[in-house]
Design a protein that fits this description.
about 500 residues; two-stranded antiparallel ribbon; mainly alpha
């Protein structure tokens, strides 16, 4: 769609809101099919952080049945906001930063964008640190003790910091090639990752003496009060893992051939792939308890214990591929577009990726991965409530108030356009998201010695809600947005 098609009664679109990266994708360039979306989710899901979800549940005391139910249910539930927010991308060819303008306003879109972008930068850092660890172990197998026991810089050898930087640059290289290169990368990665994780599963089952010892392991939590105290926050954390994608999925769905392609592709790809990687993770972690005497929830640490160096290297190389696939698609694309949208005349998609990489380092991801309790209940639980609050407001604005009808030219027009609201901000939408966020994470708490929050919660009377943070954020954002909207808001967002 060129500038002429975006003109409004002869007025050209505002250059502050239009660039090559934010321009709607024309129909001729919408080429992603059902297969592409299914393969994208297959390759993204088979990464080390996704593996850590289910293995982390085993590490905190669940058995294989409890862990699998928790992850599978979460990934069915997260499809709801994911598919609802994907619709606008496919219908209008617009990405997440432009989509948010309709609900939050031309300037208020930066509020929603930063909520997603900063979380993505955190994930970018986490995944890159994990990938750097894998490179560190691979090179250590080849170079020996001189590499693994190099001089320390902070808490880690300088060689591990070097691997972190190298993996960051590898990912930026793929991003630099553009979205179509990413699509080809996902198609290549998906089958290779599936085969490799299947091989890991078979290998560990053989070492453990079959499935019997794994299935017979009891839950440390039982099925009583201890389990039900852990289940809600665990489910919310599993929901939070892909909750970020429920915001920025229009960045991908705008390339879909039609709604059926993106809807069916995602419905087939996400639950299937996440259930598969969870099965592998649960079985392998349980087998590690049989083979090594204690559950090893980190696959990089597990691979480092293999006797055959060739198996270590090949396994970790494919793990690197999976981690790169997930990182680029879910955690580099989003902040890159967000930063490009913030200043389209000065920041492009590629420059946005570089900015994201800097923030990813500043967040210090190595600290977030130090303990499964911090990874699952602090990181996932807290940000899940935040992004779900924004997702709920977007769903309300697009589906319930605008009834899926947007005026695309006005999405690129400043003052005078219908999405300018007041000074470029839809304060009703912002207020709805903030109130929902307070309800969802205001009561954030940590058990003694297991996180940064007070035992009684940041806001004590909201503490019980934090166990349901992602669900509370989504529902509260939707309901509050509808309640705050004036009677004449239909087809005009949340004015």
């Amino acid at each position: 769609m060129d500038a002429a098609e975006l003109s409004i009664e002869g007025a050209a679109p505002d250059a502050r809101y239009l660039s090559e990266d934010t321009r709607p994708v024309p129909p001729a360039q919408r080429t992603w099919s059902t297969r592409h979306f299914a393969l994208m989710w297959t390759s993204m899901s088979q990464c080390i952080p996704a593996y850590l979800l289910a293995s982390g549940l085993i590490a905190v005391g669940m058995n294989w049945v409890q862990a699998l139910i928790t992850v599978a249910l979460a990934n069915l539930l997260v499809l709801i906001p994911l598919l609802l927010n994907s619709h606008a991308g496919t219908k209008y060819g617009i990405g997440f930063p432009v989509y948010t303008r309709a609900v939050f306003g031309m300037r208020g879109a930066h509020f929603a964008g930063l909520a997603r972008g900063l979380v993505a930068c955190g994930w970018f850092g986490i995944q890159t640190w994990i990938g750097g660890q894998a490179i560190y172990v691979i090179v250590g197998q080849l170079a020996g003790r001189g590499w693994t026991q190099a001089g320390r810089l902070g808490d880690y050898p300088w060689t591990q910091w070097l691997c972190f930087a190298v993996f960051m640059l590898l990912q930026l290289f793929v991003v630099w090639r553009g979205m179509q290169a990413l699509r080809r990368f996902e198609v290549f990665a998906a089958p290779l990752l599936t085969l490799t994780f299947a091989a890991l599963l078979v290998w560990m089952l053989i070492r453990a003496g079959g499935v019997g010892p794994i299935l017979s392991q009891p839950s440390k939590l039982g099925w009583g009060a201890e389990f039900w105290a852990v289940f809600p926050p665990s489910l919310m954390s599993m929901l939070a893992f892909w909750a970020t994608m429920s915001l920025n999925m229009p960045d991908f769905s705008r390339f879909a051939k039609n709604q059926r392609a993106q809807g069916l592709g995602q419905a087939l790809g996400l639950p299937t792939a996440m259930t598969w990687i969870s099965l592998v993770s649960i079985a392998v972690t349980s087998a590690s308890a049989v083979v090594y005497g204690a559950p090893i929830w980190d696959p990089v640490e597990l691979a480092a214990r293999f006797d055959n160096p060739v198996a270590v290297i090949l396994g970790l190389l494919v793990a690197l591929l999976g981690t790169m696939s997930a990182t680029i698609a879910s955690d580099v694309v989003s902040p890159s577009y967000v930063f490009a949208n913030a200043a389209p005349r000065f920041i492009g998609f590629r420059t946005g990726a570089v900015i994201a990489s800097v923030i990813a380092v500043v967040i210090q991801p190595w600290r977030l991965l130090a303990d499964p309790n911090i990874y699952i209940y602090t990181w996932l639980g807290f940000y899940g409530g935040l992004v779900a609050s924004v997702a709920g407001v977007l769903i309300a604005g697009y589906w319930l108030l605008a009834r899926t009808e947007l005026h695309v030219p006005d999405l690129f027009r400043g003052a005078g356009g219908r999405y300018w609201y007041r000074g470029g901000w839809n304060w009703r939408a912002v207020l709805a998201a903030v109130l929902a966020a307070v309800l969802s994470v205001g009561g954030a708490y940590s058990d003694p010695g297991k996180g940064p929050f007070p035992v009684d919660g940041l806001i004590p009377f909201l503490r019980p809600l934090y166990d349901y943070s992602t669900g509370i954020g989504l529902v509260a954002g939707l309901v509050i947005a509808v309640l705050l909207a004036p009677p004449n808001s239909r087809k005009r967002g949340l004015q």
